[in-house]
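User: quick one
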Amino acid sequence: MNDLSRRRVLFGGAALGAGALLTACTSNTPSENTQINTNQNAGNNKNAEPGQKVVIGFSAPAADHGWVAAITNNAKAQAAAYQDVELRSVAAGADAAAQRAAISTLIAQKPNVIVLLPHDGKELNSVGLEAMKAGIPVVNLDRAFPDRAAYRLQIKGDNYGMGLAAGTWISAQLKLKGVSNPVIGEIPGIDSLELTQERTAGFNEALGQNGFKVANRRPAEFTADSGQRAATELLQALPKMDALWNHDDDQGIGVLAAINQAGRKEFFMVGGAGSKAAIDQIAADNSVLKATVTYSPSMASSAISLARLIGQGKGMADLVELQVPKEITLASETITKENAAKYSKLGF
Amino acid sequence: MTDQSTRPGVPAQSPPVDSQVTKEAPAPKGSWWKSDGAEPVRRNIGLVGVLVVLVIIGIVTRPELYGDATWVTNNVWTILQQASAIGVVTVGMTFVIIGGGIDLSVGAIIAVAGVWSTTLATQSYGAAGMIFTAIVVGVVVGLINGVLISYGRLVPFIATLAMMVAARGLAAQISGKQTQVSTNTTINSIATTKIAGIPMLVIILALVVAAGWVLLNRTTYGRRTVAIGGNVEAARLAGINVRLHTMLLYALSGLCCGIAAIMLTSQATSAQAAMANLYELDAIAAAIIGGTLLSGGRGTIIGALFGVLVFSTITNLFAINNLSTEVQNMVKGGIIVAAVLVQQFRYRSLTQLLGRKPTA
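Assistant: Done. Structure below.
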């Protein structure tokens, strides 16, 4: 038996098979779905007119979640919508150190503005300072730099506000239904993250004001399969439930699957983030999902628009100030059946 | 394994003496189904004890829930269903570990198989196409692991660590980092179907465990796996094609991952690159507390199943009492250490204490 030739056949076969499979069935027609401002009905908005060319450097972590993917897609789409914007996107690498290195290269290229979603605000703070010192305005997206000198503009979502919105809506609904001693469940995302803790704090605050509290809380990991596991346990622990807040619509796919598998429908559920699928489901009103509170990746589109204005030295048309403000926190909005149609274009 | 694991004085988690392992196990006397062992309950007495204690704690802390028969039935099925996908992975992992290896890439293989079988292109081939894809992808990735380890001479830890990273990358590449929703009702209904009152997922787990038990205890392949894990050089000298055998072990683990990928996709009605996060650690932990020797040469499928059930029951117990998952993880860690300590104690002294001759 010729061992060598058999080994070759094995290797060759494995390589060929892998190659064939790779090309065969991974086609996945991407449904481009971005939330940008196209200025189509800008009317007499002078800011929309093409102006001085602005080179924007952009960096965001590699997407491991639908939300981060939407951030990058939005930034690219919004930049493409302007004739006078050139977007230079650099990969942020796997961690804060890799992103720091990438931004240093970006600073050396001297873009007019840098838009940056850091891996971690605290760890990337020094890079923000470095860019600002080099005379490049920094737009800090979502994960905040602690140092105010490290950014020209900070635009972020409101995690605490998200919990507050969910808790407020749930309380109002329960009062409307006249439930006196409600059983409320909560499925947060990765529990060790600061953003999760802020969301939960806001949720408890809103419930507390109404004299309600969370009966059981099972964290998932922002993935559908972990959402399914967490929800299955939660449903088993609470044989009767009145309301459920799930922090994230992506893991919500699994949460809804678990609810469906358990055949439960005696409660209503509120989602989080505002994915397209969730908004469509709320509009259709055929599941327990009755509302979602937003944490919209549209902030990346706005960040590019504002970076362009900063680069051109313009202010926001509706404000008196001649320059773009220093900090913007998006409001977490509550999407229900009534307003779902209006928000469907903002779903990611 | 029957002849040496019950021998007094051999600690459960210490490498066995070569001469004992390399000879193939003698055919057991008595009923054919009695080997893995001989007395499964006695062999896994510690784990059964832990399970009983966990259930008692559940009854004491939530008597109102355990008072409801329907709820209890539901809860048993829930615990088993939550254990189903990880249980299937653990069967493959147990084989790899008994064979002297380790597979750190199981979670990543599930992700690739799950994501690949839920692309729009694959979904257009229907449920059969999706199941076929998941299983073929699982086996092929497992085979690549096996080829690298057997013929490329990579250390299993390194080869499968590299595969873990690469396969997660491939999964993210295929999915475009999006959650891919399965619109196939046949696949999605696997998680909801019950046959004769038993959830389909539990039936799949039972079939895989039964197949694994037969393969390990009733076939030459299984006995050779034990021999290779015990002493690879002696196994080679005895004429076993160690390379081919080892390669197939990783393919077997990949096959289990493919099956688990379909089960998870069905449960979550979707797949994504980050799915089955840290399943490798859960599977290894379950195998270890089930009495599988990390250095190879000894282990049982039934023990591994008990290991998975213990973890699943702990999760359930913490959920019904609304306790934090942080404490739950600490308890899990404690149980892994305790289980191994108990096994060592049992082998060293309990048999002597009872003055019993080992049953070989």
